Amino acid sequence: MPVRFLRHPPRVDLLIAVSGLLGGLLLWFLGLSEGKPLFGLPKWLVLVALVVMSGSELLRRRAPLTALAIGTAAVALDLCTGTLVATVVMYTDLVYAAVLYGSPAVARRLPRACEIGTALVTALALVLLRDPGALLIGFAFSVITVAPAWTGVGIRVHRDRAEAARLAAERTALLAELDRREAVGAERARMARELHDMVAGHLSAIAIHSSAALSIGEPEASREALGVIRENSVQGLAEMRRLIGLLREQTKEADEPAPTPTLDGLDALLERARTAVRDDRFSFVLRDERGPGALPAPVELAAYRIVQESLTNAVKHAAPGEVSVALARDDGALVVRVASALGERPGPRAPGAGAGLTGMRERVALLGGALAAGPAAGEETFWEVRAELPVDEEEIR
């Protein structure tokens, strides 16, 4: 016997079975049986049909087809032995339950089978009885089978639609949660890039000059280093205040830094790098061949940050020599190139987290561009960062 038959039936099924059994027994003792037994069968068999039908009700949800098969045999016995209304009513419930809880194939085919059965019973009654009153037999059969079957279809369709709506709502909620998490992750990544790009250069300069101030015993050189440290500290603090202000969505004062840096500030970036490196053998050169056309704000910000991070890396890692920054327009894209001499230092002049190149790649990927960083082609003594940022003319401010 399958395991599902051994489980306790649902409380509703048990209540239906007990109610039907008690109701049928009450009708029996009151003598309210609807007809006379056929084929000489004893009348007490109607009680057997009642008990079997009540037992079938216990399987209406767990094994609806099995319950319907047993119930069909029980109702046939009931009709041949006197007919109790309680048995017939419970059979209509089994037909309803078979459609509602059965497989989709059963739900599609059983109503049609009931209709065909009703037509055959009606035709057979007319042939045997040769009386228009035989139509009442077909009508009664349809009430017992067709009506509960189509009622089950309606309830099942409504239930399936409700379930589909619930699943759609859950899926929508899940997608909304995934979108929220993705948006939060993207915002965290953006904040990390902004924080790194704005502060890393200042902290690198502070680290380099503080090391120089500690290692050089000359008062004048130490005073100069402390001045650079102070300048970079003030600038870094201003950048932090700007970022915090953006996060808090506060209105900026007119004398605060611009909310979005532009390429017009590259000269200041190069000057800051000259001050930070503290080595006369370094030279910083800007070659701006963009032309007079404007750039979309996202492209200009990405280019500014790429130059800023590349100069920070040059201050920390490059060998003495020229550090060149070149900007040009090429086939609908802004090309940013930063080249510096490769050195053989045992380590960087200032510590770093190694997140700068990752941030540059993320910025370029967001714009659908390309980034390459490594030894320059044909000039392995130089390190080059080259970024191509597509320019959409429709986005130009």
Architecture overview:
The protein has 397 residues and is of the alpha+beta class. The chain folds into two domains: 3-169, no CATH class; 176-395, Histidine kinase-like ATPase, C-terminal domain (Heat Shock Protein 90), CATH 3.30.565.10. Helices cover 63% and strands 11% of the residues. The chain contains twelve helices and five strands. The protein has a five-stranded mixed β-sheet, covered by helices on one side. Helix 11 links the parallel strand 1 (283-289) and strand 2 (322-330). Helix 8 packs across helix 12 and helix 10 packs parallel to helix 11. It is rod-shaped and about 130 Å long.
The profile of the biggest β sheet is: 5 strands, mixed
Count of DSSP H/I helices: 12
Q: What proportion strand? A: 5-15%
Going by CATH, the homologous superfamily of the largest domain would be Histidine kinase-like ATPase, C-terminal domain
Q: N- to C-terminal separation?
A: 77 Å
Low-pLDDT segments: 250-258, 346-353
Number of domains: 2
Radius of gyration, in angstroms, nearest whole number: 43 Å
- Structural class call reads alpha+beta
State the CATH class of the largest domain: Alpha Beta
Under the CATH scheme, which architecture of the largest domain would be assigned? Answer: 2-Layer Sandwich
Q: Give the overall shape.
A: rod-shaped
Number of strands: 5
Strand order of the largest sheet: 1-2-3-5-4
Q: State the order of secondary-structure elements, H for helix, E for strand.
A: HHHHHHHHHHEHEEHEE
Q: What is the name of the CATH topology of the largest domain?
A: Heat Shock Protein 90
pLDDT average, as an integer? Answer: 80
Fraction of helical residues = 55-70%
